[in-house]
Amino acid sequence: MKRVLVIRAAGALGAEICSALDAVDAVEVVTASRAKADTAVDVASAESIYLAVQQIDVVVVAAPQRDPVVQRVCAERAIPCVDVSPHGQLLRQVQNELQGITVPSVLMCGFFPGLSGILAAHVVQELEFVDEVSVALLQSANAKVGPTGVKDMLRKISEPVSTREGGLPGFRYKKQMRFGNQKRTVRRIHYDEQEFLTERLGVSEIGYYTAWSSPALTAVIAEMKRLGVLALLARSSLQIAPKHNPRKPQNASLMVEAKSLAASEGETGTRTIRVEACSDYGATALVTACVVRYMVNHQADLAGVLLPMDFMRLEDMAWAFGKDRMSLWQ
User: Fold this and answer.
1) Is residue 139 part of a domain?
2) Which Gene3D superfamilies match (predicted)?
């Protein structure tokens, strides 16, 4: 039995991760947070983390960090670590400080980013001379999201977008993509995973897009971005959490499309793959549990600072897709 410590287990995402980990064989979940839990922990305090990781086999970080204190302690104690943070700055800092560690330290582990990178790698390998990859998240207007997740998305939407032609204002450029039987208009955003996918896949243009299930909500957010309101909210101390109706669905869709510069005879030159999930946080929890499950079974083969796509292929995600909360469409 492997003991997995989930830091910030009391949060909206942490609770989902604990629930998903409960379904993993030979795993015992230990919860940790500032509030009442099995273990009290402060992610800014190395001493607190040292005490929390006693007799722990894997650490999952569902708490935001400005400084990778948890990763440092885990590396020193030779404990594998999985972090759901979407921030490239944190990943770069861990890479710079912990290069050459002998245990795995995984970051950007979730639905978007995380599974998005695995899907992109899969569709790219099916084509030659891939010229462009588009990664799009269709979010639910009824999503149960905590303040940290809201602020993260507002910041990304507010930032300018880098393309091979130059810079663009965030959330202004529109693109139509097909999600199942419906065409939806999504808007391009800055997303930190883009930089790391470009390094790994060698594709010159990787674009990230998002929209909400309600076109009216997407339009309101676009107008707030144009007026500069989103940037102010992202920098503010306000704790923003959208209203969630538990009696209504909060489905999320993730679509990846790759286009080839030179299609072979009989091929269209385009490959797409789509994942439907019961919720964004639910999907992130399943991906995290699947990564922990893989690490427990293959720990001897893993080391260093990693993204999920560095060691997991699409077929390795079969456990997550075998649940009724997430499905794959190719």
Assistant:
1) yes
2) NAD(P)-binding Rossmann-like Domain
